[in-house]
Amino acid sequence: MNHARRKKNKNDYMKKTPLIYNWRIVRCSMYIIGLDVYKNSGYYSMIDDSTSGIFAYEYLDERRIEVHLAHPTLVKPFAKKHVKTDKVDSEVLAQLLRMDYLPESYVPEGEIRDLRTIVRHRASLVRLRTSIKNRVHALLTREGIELPKLSDIFGKRGTEFLKGVKLQQQRRTVLDDYLRVLEVLNCVIKEVEETLEEKG
Predict the structure, then answer these.
(1) N or C: which end of the chain has fewer CB within 10 A?
(2) Of all helices (H) and strands (E), which one includes residue 197?
(3) Which residue range forms the structural domain that includes residue 43?
(4) Taking the mean position of all CA atoms in its chain, how far away is CA 1?
(5) In the chain, how long is the greatest CA-to-CA distance?
(6) Phi first, then psi: what are they for 186, rounded to 5°?
(7) Alpha helices (H) in 49-167, listed in sequence order
(8) CA-only gyration radius of the chain, Å
(9) Do 162 and 118 fall into the same domain?
């Protein structure tokens, strides 16, 4: 993650702007101390848009430090250099901000960011559940098991059928494990959906 900071007085940019670069995000007290140095310092903060960049953005934003989240794709044409280092990237970000040419990523309000996090979490859980269901279908197909005509083989009646299917011991164990995982996922997904309803 690359950072570039400047004084709010743009005319003094070249003389007074320290460039902070090569900060690697680690969620530990040392990194937090590094950010807190600039609290109430009158500096802007520019961060490239990445997973670690979002963490730093939120941390600084909560402390009311003005933050600009640079859009990596739109910044790239300005940063074509033979030598690419964190220091060079920081200088590019600082120059773009000084000239008001810095392309920024859209950052929603804190509540919206939190809601998006929950929505993405639910989506990942649903994908995981779908993957497990596909594995169950594949296992039964390999064993030549004919499924009953049910609207949902993973519903109440379908689950009873799956629990009673006779398979080789190892494959029976695998199917039981899949069913237990699905049971847990269904509970977690339901809890997440209830949270979304409350926040909605």
Answers:
(1) C
(2) helix 169-199
(3) 3-98
(4) 15
(5) 79
(6) -60, -40
(7) 51-62, 72-75, 86-98, 110-142, 156-164
(8) 26
(9) yes
Same domain, 21 and 89: yes
Both tokens of 112, joined, read 């919206």
**Whole-model pTM over 0.85:** no
Inform me whether the pLDDT recorded for 159 exceeds 70. Answer: yes
The residue from 98, 119, 140 where one domain ends is 98
- Is the predicted pLDDT of residue 22 greater than 70, yes or no? no
Same domain, 132 and 160: yes
Computed over every residue of the chain, the mean pLDDT equals 76
| Residue 107: closest CA among 190, 49, 41 | 49
48: left (phi over 0), alpha (psi -120 to 50) or beta: beta
pLDDT for the residue 132 = 97
- Given a cut of 50, whether residue 28 has pLDDT beyond it is no
What's the one-letter identity of residue 23? W
What's the rounded Cα separation, in Å, for the pair 98 and 102?
A: 8
